[in-house]
Design brief:
Elements lengths: L1 H8 L3 H18 L1 H13 L3 H26 L4 H12 L1 H8 L7 H15 L2 H9 L7 H9 L4 H7 L1 H8 L1 H7 L1 H14 L10 H24 L7 H5 L1 H12 L2 H4 L5 H32 L3 H29 L1 H21 L4 H29 L4 H30 L3 H20 L1 H8 L1 E4 L4 E6 L2 E5 L7
Length: 474
């Protein structure tokens, strides 16, 4: 504990808290439709596929917007991006307050889901902004603490369902805006970004607003068949279409990271860890109701328990990665995720064991999220903003596919087994690929500061190595 306190004092704790709260509130608003889904489904009488798609839309839009936010962070002060994101995230709450009668339209919910995704995009700014206030040797812990804003999903489970039962789900959507008002003032007063900026901010801002308009047309358009393509295939193409739009207009120097093998492997891993966390957080209430006939409030309470577990343990994932490297940690974490998915696929677990299995996999998700992002500033120290956006987007895409595929599989087969089996195989594939590059990644992945020798040290395949520090003059 003393080491943790010392690490926190080595930077700006107020700025770290502001980043945490920004991500925490954004995460809570982001998954609002997932928390209210049991009430919405009952009123609108949605099919399993419609349920899955509704809760997946905010996850998808957040993934795409993370690319925008990461791009903007390279040239715009993170505090300004955060304040803008908070204001825009409040639009659904304001809409629910002014036009509650329109919320009974499924297409309107999809449109609001696009805007709710801006809350999840906060990840691409909150983490690098928090990390910019601290030295390199404590990045795993600091980024883990900032990203523990995942705990915002706990509010979705314990606060919003009871409010929806008493006041109604439309009124609850309006009341959620109070959280954003509080966060706005904290970020305004305490947030600080010390990250290096380069390039013109106008291109990044223009692309962001163009992407927002594009998604507001694309998502309901594909669902309703406005473009001549409709059905499950059209919905599964959404992440590819959305991300391609953003990438087409990014500066070439940022697109070059896609030519790196390490980028794609990191994308795959984070789509499993964070994608699993956010995807299951948004869908687990519906899963528990379908699988075990839990009540809406009980399912919401369990959703909070799972989300709290994954969020609370995330900083420990970063802390462990600081000690043994994120590479080593992820080997065990991916094995655990694959194993639990396989268990859910092959066995019809009774309620107690089913809940225990979900609790375990959420713990692995949290550890994996912390371990993965400990590696990002080590591998891409000069492009942490764009990489946070890119890899964070991959996590969002994983979070989109999980509920979408589970909903489709349930509707087609009457069971979730095939879906869980598929995700188990994906995690196992990532584990095998990570094992192949283990030795190469360890050359840069384990970096610590040796206070006695005043230098950075690391571990290579042949043992301990010392890495020269280059200081810039005043």
């Amino acid at each position: 504990m003393r080491q943790v306190i010392k690490a926190l004092r080595s930077g700006n704790p107020k700025a770290l808290f502001a980043s945490f709260l920004y991500f925490d509130t954004g995460f809570s608003i982001w998954l609002l439709l997932g928390a209210l889904a049991p009430f919405i489904v009952q009123e609108l009488n949605l099919s399993p596929a419609q349920k899955g798609f509704m809760v997946a839309v905010p996850v998808l839009s957040a993934a795409v917007f993370r690319l925008n936010f990461g791009h903007m962070y390279q040239s715009i002060d993170g505090k300004r991006i955060a304040l803008m994101g908070i204001i825009l995230s409040g639009i659904p709450s304001l809409f629910a307050l002014l036009f509650p009668q329109l919320l009974s339209n499924y297409t309107v919910l999809l449109l609001l889901g696009v805007i709710l995704g801006l809350g999840g995009a906060s990840f691409a700014v909150a983490l690098p902004m928090a990390g910019s206030n601290y030295p390199r040797e404590v990045q795993g812990l600091v980024l883990g603490l900032a990203a523990a804003g995942n705990i915002g999903a706990v509010l979705d489970g314990i606060l919003f369902p009871p409010l929806a039962k008493v006041f109604g789900w439309k009124e609850t959507m309006a009341m959620a805006g109070i959280l954003l008002i509080i966060t706005f003032f904290v970020v305004f007063l305490w947030a600080k970004d010390k990250g290096e900026k380069e390039g013109s901010p106008y291109h990044a801002l223009g692309l962001f607003f163009a992407t927002q308009l594009f998604l507001l047309i694309l998502i309901p358009g594909l669902y309703n068949g406005w473009f001549g393509i409709k059905g499950k295939e059209a919905l599964l193409l959404l992440p590819l279409i959305g991300s391609s739009f953003v990438f087409a207009f990014l500066p070439n120097k940022y697109r070059k990271v896609l030519l790196e093998r390490d980028t794609w492997l990191m994308i795959l891993i984070y789509s499993i860890t964070f994608g699993g966390f956010v995807g299951m957080s948004s869908y687990v209430s519906l899963y528990l109701i379908d699988q075990y006939a839990f009540s809406k409030l009980s399912a919401g309470a369990l959703m909070s328990l799972f989300a709290f577990t994954g969020a609370f343990i995330r900083p420990f994932g970063g802390y462990i990665a600081d000690r043994i490297s994120g590479v080593r940690a992820l080997l065990f974490i991916l094995a655990g995720i694959s194993g639990v998915y396989m268990l859910l696929s092959l066995l019809s677990l009774p309620p107690f064991l089913g809940i225990l299995a979900l609790l375990v996999i959420f713990a692995f998700f949290g550890l994996g999220n912390g371990a993965t992002f400990q590696l990002v500033p080590q591998r891409w120290p000069k492009a942490r903003g764009i990489m946070a956006g890119l890899i964070g987007a991959a996590g969002g895409f994983g979070g989109f596919y999980l509920p979408t595929v589970l909903g489709m599989v349930k509707e087609a087969t009457g069971s979730y087994s095939a879906g869980f089996f598929l995700f188990s195989m994906i995690a196992l594939t990532a584990l095998a690929l990570l094992k192949l590059v283990h030795s190469q990644w360890m050359e840069w992945a384990y970096v610590r500061y040796d206070y006695e020798k005043d230098m950075l040290t690391g571990i290579a395949p042949n043992g301990r190595i010392a890495m020269e520090l280059v200081y810039k003059g005043d």
